[in-house]
Amino acid sequence: MNPNGQTTSSESEFAFTDTEFKRLTGIVRELTGIVLGDHKKEMVYGRLARRLRKLGMQSFAQYCALLDSQNANQETGFLVNAITTNLTKFYRESHHFDFLTDHIGRIQSDTARRSGDKKVFFWSAGCSSGEEPYSIASTVLTRFPSLAQWDVKILATDLDTNMLDTGKAGQYSVNAIKDIPSEYRRVFNDNTTKKGDKIYIRDRTKALVHFKQLNLLHPWPMKQKYDAIFCRNVLIYFDAETKHMLVKRYTDLLRPGGMLFLGHSESLQTKIKGLTLIGRTAYQKEE
Length: 287
Ligand SMILES: C[S@@+](CC[C@H](N)C(=O)[O-])C[C@H]1O[C@@H](n2cnc3c(N)ncnc32)[C@H](O)[C@@H]1O
Description:
This protein is of the alpha/beta class.
């Protein structure tokens, strides 16, 4: 890198100045809420280099010019998909699924719910490629077969359209489920269509999960209240103010007694009215 913060062509394929980095991170923050500090410059370069190559560009200056042009709208989707971090896995932070199991047990034995509309709604907010909402579905189907008589829906939303496509397809590598308890495995793996080293999510499991694109910073269309919301390993990318605002909105959207699960490094530093910590990054809305 030269003294102007410019990555020179002898070092890298594309010139990338600090000013261009700041411009890009500003656009990403405005679009997604994701905050990218200076130490992320190489990551941003790495994730966008392929896109520049595809567009036949020679520099990040050209790419910034495209994002400032009238054609920016078509490009922002590619930018967002390239920048988001989508790491996930089945039954990640498995203790949350123990809390979920207890919570569903309470719902099922609640006399008012049993004689009411029998609706149970879950939301995986920032679902990435689907492993999280399918883990919720698997918990429901494995632990509570009688909930089949209820109206159970799992909303799975993300900003990244590539991840949503993977979730909808419901095909994963066999290795993706090798570490999960065997009792859960059978609702994932559809042996009728099993080919090679892929597993195929069973139709019955897929039917519970509804994938939709949703930017968490935008208005939310949902009107119903949720029994549990998973927003794990998403808030970590936002600033404190955005995180606080989102957790307040999740709290408003929960039924009394509903659960909110955050990622392992996302514990709330400030108290949110009506929300109680009941376990490791597991919160419950007051009854
Ligand atoms: C690291 S993944 C977490 C996946 C899953 N929740 C888990 O814990 O395994 C973070 C996800 O948040 C999504 N995301 C980031 N900013 C978002 C936003 N503003 N609106 C919706 N989703 C967003 C990303 O696209 C990414 O798929």
